Amino acid sequence: MTTAKIDPAALMRIRNLQLRAKRVVEGFYNGLHRSPYHGFSVEFSQYRPYTEGDDPKGIDWKLYARTDRYHIKQFEDETSRRCYLAVDQSRSMAYGSLAYDKAEYARTVAATLAYFLTQQRDSVGLITFADDVTDFIPSRHRPGHFRRILVSLEKSSQATSTSVVKPLEKIASTVRRRGLIILISDFLAPVDALRRHLSHLRGRGHEVMVLRILDPAEISFSIQESTVVQDLESGREIFVDPGSVKDSYQQKFKEHAEQIVAACNALGVRQSIMMTNTPIENALFELISTSVHSGTGRGAR
Q1: What sign does the dihedral 211-108-230-90 (CA atoms) show?
Q2: CA 73 to CA 225: how far, in whole Å?
Q3: CA distance 24 to 92
Q4: pLDDT tens-digit profile of 109-132?
Q5: Could you tell me the pTM of the whole model?
Q6: Where on the phi/psi map is residue 121: left (φ > 0), alpha (ψ -120 to 50), or beta?
Q7: How many helices and strands, by DSSP H and E, does the chain display?
Q8: Which conformational region is residue 44 in: left (phi greater than 0), alpha (psi within -120 to 50 degrees), or beta?
Q9: Buried/exposed code over 228-242 (b: 16+ C-beta within 10 A; e: otherwise)
Q10: Which residues have a Cβ under 8 Å from the Cβ of 155 and sit 6 or more positions away?
Q11: 190-201: b (≥16 Cβ within 10 Å) or e
Q12: Residue 97 contacts by C-beta under 8 Å, 6 or more apart in sequence?
């Protein structure tokens, strides 16, 4: 069984970020047949793996059709989780071959996850970053908090280079209680620093999820003719002859991607590439899968 997802191009035509997030989450809930166990008054919250001895009636078959794994619904009598969204706003995120760029797609992903977690009564915080932390909103669940997150996401950034070091250091130094950290970035930066600071977060007991935002043209290298391009982060102009650099570019891009995957796998960090032409709902499925595979459900308070 499948459910139609929202075309991201159509979604981005909705100017209001909150309406986008609400549209995606409501469609996601409808697709998963959001309903409680019979005889329970508590509200559905999230999923956990099916284990021997569980009542098979609790299996969500629509989710099984999507993931090929058995999941049991959990409910709102569980302790709420603490989550931080770390969103890249560096200049490389301004690239886009579609009607919108990576930054717009990333903030929509972040807003959708924030709205979803808020609906589950989870505490949500936000860190926006580029070469340094540009905004920090502590994890909360209270009236008006989601709106504060939206205001921060809608701010433009004048920063240039990408550095995951400062935001990860900020999280490690300020977030004392274990929770879920979701990194949303194109990760066009050295992998060594990412590996080192992910290790620090994992060592402190945090669950970590990496969502790598990429434009389709970044992988396909769609430049057909010799031209001058501008490095979005340094501002430097570079002459590009596609015939002589395409193979080298794609090989280096592939090697960098493989290094990110290897670093995440070694640390038990779930990572996923989200192309900007794919449905935003995919981020919600990744969120559910991260909670399931962590084996701990919600983070400890």
Answers
A1: negative
A2: 53
A3: 26
A4: 999 999 999 988 899 999 998 878
A5: 0.78
A6: left
A7: 10, 10
A8: beta
A9: eeeebbeeeeeebee
A10: 89, 128, 134, 135
A11: ebeebbebbeeb
A12: 215, 216, 217, 222
